[in-house]
Specification:
There is one protein chain. The chain is an alpha/beta fold. The protein is built from 14 helices and 17 strands. The strands form four sheets. The chain has a five-stranded mixed β-sheet with strand order 2-1-3-10-4, sandwiched between helices. Helix 6 links the parallel strand 6 and strand 7. Helix 3 packs across helix 9, helix 4 packs parallel to helix 5 and helix 5 crosses helix 10. The chain is flat, with a radius of gyration of 24 Å.
């Protein structure tokens, strides 16, 4: 028996048309507040309900907000454009600005970071074999430390130990107690410390200016009018939710410096051929395999067409001298029919993602004969208009 379709009443039809027209405009916007583990008090001062209410009113649509101090997870979210708005320290904004976001501004003036050591450590180069106290790996303090050490030709692997803790100010106490030889602090914190303490410590290096406080970025594909209203809210009304006003707009070069210090992989990898997306496409057409080393969630959401999945579980330092034994890349050995004698390409989320760099180096050490590294990863492939799948 064939069902008879009832005609849509004019009023219902009009309502349906309105929903179709307005639906996208009413889509929910998502916000991530990323907090340095050293600045948890700042996160606690933000009233989530008030922030959601204020942002929703400004945007003219529902806005949700979550907070995280797991900076490794937050950085993955910036690379996959996982939220519409990011509020966080400079390294979070620096990553997002290369992923289709625009800067609204920051809540504090730019500041410098200092590498401070015991008096007997007379230069950065003398840090070899010494102990360094830092917050977690993706902390801005760690980025600054890596940059200042790299300028002197030192890798974290040249140090005797890198101690990761929660509070950077405690690094100065660690020096005084003899449990560390150097640490990184903000210039203002050092000035306050030095005004009350004896001269047992010295400044080895000073960074260039870095955006201070919370930086705010929003997706460029949000309508311009909505972005304007959100920027106005951050500049005039955010204090009601416990978030300082966004009143400073740093130069873009300041974010670029941060990205280059803590995010970018080297431009070459000895023993491995670095290739472009177009070159990767040509190799795939000739029978090469492409291994995606990102997380399973990222792989399922969007990937290079035909890519194989083998997650590189990264625990080692984001450093050219990383210790592969600290990571887990057993997934590579479990890929069926992967021939070590044929070309294999490794990719992840672009120049800021170390997983494919490390995977390529590990694969070469395992005896793969033709190892290629697509440093630009999925972002470069996508920007070139090459085929993707998933989602």
């Amino acid at each position: 028996m064939t069902a008879v379709k009832k005609p849509i009443r004019p009023r219902a039809a009009a309502l349906m048309s309105l929903l179709l027209i307005c639906g996208p405009a009413l889509a929910q916007l998502s916000t991530m507040v990323a907090v340095e583990p050293t600045e948890r008090k700042a996160a606690h001062s933000i009233l989530r309900t008030a922030a959601e209410s204020g942002l929703s009113k400004a945007a003219g649509q529902s806005v949700t907000l979550v907070t995280s101090d797991d900076l490794a997870d937050v950085m993955r979210a910036t690379r996959s454009a996982g939220y519409d708005i990011f509020i966080g320290p400079a390294q979070v904004a620096a990553s997002a600005l290369d992923r289709g976001y625009e800067l609204v501004g920051t809540t504090q003036k730019s500041e410098k970071y200092l590498l401070v050591a015991l008096q007997q450590v007379d230069a950065v180069a003398a840090m070899k074999g010494r102990r360094l106290y830092l917050p977690q790996q993706d902390s801005l303090y760690t980025y600054m430390a890596r940059g200042m050490l790299n300028e002197a030709g030192i890798s974290f692997q040249d140090l005797r130990a890198v101690q990761y803790e929660k509070f950077p100010q405690a690094g100065l106490s660690a020096l005084m107690l003899g449990t560390a030889d150097a640490t990184v602090v903000r210039e203002d914190d050092w000035a306050q410390w030095a005004s009350t303490q004896s001269g047992n410590l010295r400044v080895l290096a000073t960074s260039q200016l870095v955006p201070g406080g919370f930086s705010v970025v929003v997706k460029k594909d949000i309508p311009a009018e909505t972005r304007g209203r959100l920027a106005q809210w951050f500049a005039t009304s955010s204090t009601a939710s416990g978030l300082p006003l966004v009143t400073v707009r740093p130069e873009s070069i300041e974010y670029r410096r941060v990205a280059e210090l803590g995010l970018f992989t080297p431009t070459s990898l000895p023993g491995v051929s670095r290739i472009t997306a177009k070159e990767a496409q040509g190799l795939l057409a000739q029978g090469a395999a492409l291994v995606d080393t990102r997380t399973e969630k990222e792989f399922k959401a969007k990937r290079i067409r035909g890519a194989l999945f083998a997650a590189y579980v990264e625990k080692s330092l984001k450093d050219v001298a990383f210790n592969a034994a600290q990571d887990d890349f057993q997934a590579l050995d479990k890929l069926p029919n992967l021939d070590k004698g044929k070309p294999v390409i490794f990719a992840c989320n672009g120049a800021e993602c170390w997983k494919s760099y490390k995977a390529a180096k590990v694969a070469a050490a395992k005896g793969f004969k033709s190892v290629y590294w697509l440093r630009g990863g999925l972002p470069e492939w996508d920007a070139a208009g090459l085929p993707t799948e998933g989602g």
